[in-house]
């Protein structure tokens, strides 16, 4: 069983509290059809009665519902990931309460393996409680403001953010680079095998390593820079009893980075001027939608 990603972009939405919003099969008559990422505030106009912290748009309580088809299988592991919900979110799967996330910018994941419906028809319900609108120095939006997806794997599986890649050093004279690969697998040690394959930016196999941790030497590396952003690909496979239970692909660049008091920021030993700025929560892009 390889990894399968189910994107949850089509949702039903209701502005205002409802007593049975958490209940599977609850009435959604009159609810809006929305696409996530979704911000309910920006489409409802501006008023000086609202807080400047939200850009003079409304907050409130909102409910979301979506459905997806997935049947339970032996050895299957299922989790749902929210990249960001602003804010004070509560989540249910088929009427089972999963948890609360107060902070609006965090990515969070719930294990829903035990809650998958026997008939394969599953429903996710989310309450967003953004009533305290004077809570930021910038525009935050209200609702499920970032993508949501379900990850289906076997067991053991690669943990969330479980792939770590680091450039150890680059030897310019010998034209080679050393890269460390570390994979965090959820499962009993000795019960699984990990295979790691590194592919060049052109898609050619560079090397294959076995084990969750490895240090690989790459000859004649295509180094990453702002003007030439060459990216390698790490293909990670987890096997149990010679059957693939999970796999993922991770892009990475090989480069050195250094801040020098006399020469500024150096990428691969070459001065690079920083351009652009940090916009909190991509607010400018969302406001412009």
List the helices and strands and how they pair.
Elements: E1 4-7, E2 10-15, E3 32-35, E4 60-69, E5 76-82, E6 89-93, E7 96-101, E8 108-111, E9 121-130, E10 148-154, E11 157-171, E12 176-186, E13 193-199, E14 205-210, E15 213-219, E16 232-240, E17 243-252, E18 257-260, E19 264-267, E20 270-271, H1 283-287
Antiparallel strand pairs: 1-10, 2-3, 2-4, 4-9, 5-8, 5-10, 6-7, 6-9, 11-12, 12-15, 13-14, 13-16, 16-17, 18-19, 19-20
Biggest pleated-sheet summary:
6 strands, antiparallel
- What percentage of residues falls in helices of 4 or more residues? under 10%
Radius of gyration: 23 Å
Mean pLDDT over the full residue set: 91
Which stretches of 5+ consecutive residues score pLDDT under 50? Answer: 283-289
Order of helices and strands: EEEEEEEEEEEEEEEEEEEEH
Cα end-to-end separation:
39 Å
Shape: flat
- What structural class is derived from the secondary structure elements? mainly beta
Using DSSP, what is the number of strands? 20
β-strand amount: over 45%
